[in-house]
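ligand=zinc ion
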Amino acid sequence: MFWEKQIETMPVKELRRLQIRRLKKTLRQAAKSPAYSKIFKEHRVSPEKIKTLGDIRSLPFTTKEDLRENFPYGYITIPLEKIVRLHSSSGTTGRATAVFHSTKDIEGWANLVARSMYMAGVRKGDVFQNMVGYGLFTGGLGFQYGAELLGALTIPSGSGNSKRQIGLMKDFGTTVIHIIPSYALLLWKVFEEIGLDPKKDTKLRIALVGAEPHSEATRQRIEEMYGVDAFNSYGLSEMNGPGVAFECPEKSGMHFWEDDFFVEVIDPKTQKVLPDGEEGELVFTTLNREAMPLIRYRSKDLATIFPEPCRCGRTHRRISRIKGRSDDMFILKGVNIFPLQIDTTLMNIPEVGTNYVVILERVNFEDRMIVRVEVRPEIFKGDLWQLENLQRKIADALRSELLVTPKVELVEPDTLPKSEGKAMRVIDRREM
Ligand code: AMP
Ligand code: ZN
């Protein structure tokens, strides 16, 4: 059941004591970096003054902009010769940031990934195919090291090359995959094209899906398409990468590993800390990192903490599905819209295919949203009235969810741009 029972089920009081001990150590370590030693001086922070977890609120936040300002080495606390790995964020918003790890950091990270995979049911004897990019992206090497530590046979297949991925799955009897959800939908179509059914023609039993926002409806589709249990995996390169928060078999929220991360939720506007149960921006403090500790790092990811105990017995709290980044939200005709709402609506409509894109335009000073949707092949071959009905059905569903009326365009399967990494679902052409 557990990878590390003692830590995973540690009584909450004990867990908090462990956190405060590690927080103090982290602050002393952070003070060794040029960036934090300066910040601590400016804000008159002395690690010695921090006595309780609540005291962390007296410390300033660390933002992506801070990381960029102190690029590349400003946050490291140990000599360069003790650093063994660099990773970097995908840089979808602005310049990428660099994160450094010592050998001990890499070991700690691998352990968190192994713990997460074990929690989802992965075991020695499983054949694990890691279908994401290796390189600066943390999903490749992060899962590689975690799966090896766990003892699974790992296939480092990397991203893309769908037919080869399917070949590997068949040849080696892959039982577990790690895959980006939008790519899982696309890959299923390739199975269909070559006349295979992943439910019958593979041994898949578990899919670990993450790295981008996706809805419960998308998860269900993946589970049905592949005949697997799909588990949500959340992480960000600034907090190592994968292994920050992960679903347990209860699949109701992701446990975040409180022995290694102190998590707060803040109101992104006022920066006030919110109580558990309220939605806001996740703020992370590393509790067990050596080369590059980060304090109160603002992730921009929006979620809610579920404080209730979980039936699985783990005491580490859970977060909801990530609603998106605060800068993913767009405003159309005065209405706030999150791409996740569109994902939920579309993926709940069975005739909708495996890919879609949202385009925002300004025509004659008026904003409009076009939702271009691939439909299932049999629908496209059907009658025109059937297509018109579907178009109306999608537009109605979106209107009732979003409160604005989009223009829905139905397109043939395989016509929209495909992505092997994180999908770009929204194209905003309004500023141009
Ligand atoms: P990167 O550091 O480039 O790997 O990107 C990390 C970001 O990807 C996070 O801050 C989230 O915005 C997003 N992300 C990662 N995992 C998930 C997930 N399971 N659900 C939603 N968003 C995710
Ligand atoms: Zn649980």
